[in-house]
Amino acid sequence: MSNFMTGLTVTYDFNPNQQLQFQVLNSLNEGTEATYGKNLEHSRMPLVYTLNWNANMFGGFWQTRWSVSLMDEAKDKYMYYVALGNQFNFSKRCNMYIDLMSSTEELDRKGIMTNMLGGRDRFDKHNAFNAMYNSVVAKVNYRFKPKWNFFVKGMLESAAMFKSEDGVEKGNYRTSLGYVTGVEFYPMDTNLHFYLTFVGQSNFFTERAKMYGNDDYSTQRVSVGFIYQLPVF
């Protein structure tokens, strides 16, 4: 995940429940070579442009954070990103969110496809071209007691090439499934909670991906712990 350090935001509120935001941000934290590799022509203006729609509708039942983004990665190479975040508040005890994300990267910023295909050495010392990632994440929370919460979370993601180039075939290469469930205990109104969770992930590679040495695998773990947020401000 990229954290953009410098930018400008302009916000317009249509009403108390509808808002538009336009952002212009610096897309590079470490420079073109560190982010994408060598032997690329640098962008003259490495910026990302984002338009957000934030809404609170039907008395707070449906809350949205939708965005579309255009990123200038290198000369004549762009990333197009769409994220549709939705939260549904069914009651004080139960809520859920579902987020849909699509990233079309003419230059593979995430590096997942690049590593899957053998690394930068296979692509003249830079990241692969024409990567595409699609994801959906959903989570349901149920506060069955005032201080106890049960949750279930699922994730589905595909990693693909949207165009054939450099001897790499167009198509899907990996499908990932993630699943998390657990219980949380909140002894205080804020800052502190304890948790017990089960976390799992399964990765399935297509035959074209297995030609590059990738094999299906799964991981699982059980975690017990607590999170305390320091009230600094």
Element-level helix/strand string: EEHEEEEHEEEEHE
Helix coverage percent: under 10%
Shape: globular
Task: List how many beta strands DSSP finds.
Answer: 11
Question: Strand count, sense and closure of the main sheet?
Answer: 11 strands, antiparallel
State the end-to-end CA separation.
26 Å
- What integer is the average pLDDT? 94
Poorly predicted sequence stretches spanning 5 or more consecutive residues: none
Question: What Rg is obtained from the alpha carbons, in whole angstroms?
Answer: 21 Å
How large a portion of the residues is in β-strands, by DSSP E? Answer: over 45%
Q: Total helix count? A: 3
What strand line-up does the widest sheet have? 1-2-3-4-5-6-7-8-9-10-11
Structural class: mainly beta
Provide a descriptive summary of the structure in words.
The protein is mainly β. Helix content is 6%, strand content 61%. The protein has helices spanning 32-36, 112-116, 207-210; strands spanning 7-15, 18-26, 47-57, 62-74, 77-89, 94-107, 129-145, 148-161, 171-185, 192-205, 217-228. The longest helix has 5 residues, at 32-36. The mean pLDDT is 94.
Considering the chains and any ligands shown, give keywords for the structure.
single chain; 233 residues; mainly beta; 11-stranded antiparallel β-sheet; 3 helices; 11 strands; globular
Write the layout of secondary structure elements.
Elements: E1 7-15, E2 18-26, H1 32-36, E3 47-57, E4 62-74, E5 77-89, E6 94-107, H2 112-116, E7 129-145, E8 148-161, E9 171-185, E10 192-205, H3 207-210, E11 217-228
Antiparallel strand pairs: 1-2, 2-3, 3-4, 4-5, 5-6, 6-7, 7-8, 8-9, 9-10, 10-11
